Amino acid sequence: MGRLLHTFRTTITASQSMKLFTARKDPKRSLPEHFLYLAAVCNACGGGAEAQVLDNIVRYASSELSTVLMAKYNNGRYGRLRQVEELAHFAQAVET
Question: Domain of life of the organism in this record (predicted)?
Answer without folding.
Answer: Eukaryota
